Prior knowledge:
The structure holds two protein chains of two kinds.
Chain A: H1 13-40, H2 44-51, H3 54-87, H4 93-99, H5 102-105, H6 108-118, H7 126-129, H8 140-165, H9 168-176, H10 181-210, H11 213-219, H12 229-238, H13 242-279
Chain B: H1 12-42, H2 45-53, H3 56-89, H4 95-107, H5 110-121, H6 128-133, H7 142-153, H8 155-168, H9 171-178, H10 183-212, H11 215-221, H12 231-240, H13 244-272
Amino acid sequence: MRWRREPSVIPGFGITFGFTTFFLCALVLLPLSALVAKGAGMDWQRFVAVVTDPRAVASYKLSFGASLVAASINIVFGFIVAWTLVRYRFPGRRFIDAIIDMPFALPTAVSGLALSAVFAANGWLGQYLEPYGIKVVYAPLGITIALTLIGMPFVVRTVQPALEELPRDVEEAAATLGASPAYTFLRVILPAVLPAMLTGFTLAFARAVGEYGSITFIAGNIPMQTEITPLLIIIRLDEYDYAAAAAIGCVMLAISFAMLLAINLLQLWGRRRISASARR
Amino acid sequence: MGATPHQRVGTPLTRVLLIGISLAFLGALLFAPLAMVFATAFGAGWQAWFSGLADSDTAAAIRLTLTATAIVVPLNTLFGVCAAWCIAKFEFRGKSVLLTLIDLPLAVSPVVSGLIYVLLFGAQGWFGAWLQEHEISIIFAVPGIVLATMFVTFPYVARELIPLMQQLGNDEEEAAITLGAGGWFTFFHVTLPRIRWGLLYGVILCNARAMGEFGAVSVVSGNIRGMTTTMPLHIENLYQDYNIAGAFAVASLLSLLAVVTLIIKTLLEWRTGIRHR
Lengths: 280, 277
């Protein structure tokens, strides 16, 4: 079978294609198939029992619930931040713009440690919440805050370019024609950036569901209460129950694939809309 | 409403309000934690900071992190350049499959990334028995840490270079080859000068993630103090020992890494006009 379709004078196809494929097979495909094989090799009833164990179900609820809330917070505040950065000029704007990517560069262990100190009952921000009985550290709220932090740049960085592309005169035209700001936002701005917002939401959600590092510090890891799914995999591994760990790992892998598919479909939708509006 | 050309939607009040909300949100989420790390780490003075780091386990953790990164980053750079050359310079069937596979580690949970290597090389894994026979340890040892770190970081360089090289096109390389230049010569003298900033961009992001990876490494490392504990894992150990000063001292080193990464990244963006994600 010939892989190469178009002839080219540029050399190096064989060696780069071979090396890339080999690296991907050895490092990605082989290990991932070990996981799927381990999961598939289990007795079906045992697989179902492990995956639907009350402790596992409680961990899915927490992982999904907290990730969903965090991504929702990000879609609102991420939009506001992106809007502020694109449309307003104020001192320190470039600095703020640069620091948005901090969660990409900051190790998750550091952000978890720092957040747990900031939101501790005697911490900088925790002291103002504590009198109202709001507990952040060792509670689902803390998990949500940590997941909001790591997901934030995904939303800002996908919404930002979409807002930059949105011509300013469209809003001006709407305002000149007498549309209220709320109407302009709902009918003009929101539809244009919706694909980007949903893509950012899904990216943030996908990242949050799998997150582990920052959560270990702030969650307290109480079974049935603040135990996220990735932690449950680690607990099963510590018990040398590799099969159970693999089963839960398969569930998480399936979720990852579903997210990847959703992201690709959303981006396709966004591109279609842009090319459709360009034709008009 | 006046008809000024720069009329904007919303009043000055909304503008102030939205900037205020943005700053408050980022302040609580980004600035407060970062300031907390440095305030706690350096709060008791430089000497306390140094003594927080002066511990043989801490030194071992720093060494291990640097060693693992020194192996992972060059290999992933090599992979990234190869993958980008193959994907950007040629048209072939199965290209989109290759692209999806390159992106895959970004979608997988770090814990699952560690787990897959345990299932492959662990005592009960596919190659477990064979490795034990030959007395090679991968899991709960440095090779496992390197492999897991490699998995989570290998898309970084490739993802940066592929769009860049696709955008630059093949014309200059084709001209060089047609004029009789060799493949390596063309790469080093024609391609590399044009992609160097993008390459550097990918490398520093890969480096930051490699040094900071927690989930995947914690699964494969076994956390043997002084032996298989990387800096992020060591923070957790110190924290669990209630050695808060030590934990924040190590955390401040990693935060410094993040700050430097961000500065280089921003400078590269200003210089080249590229924008990540």
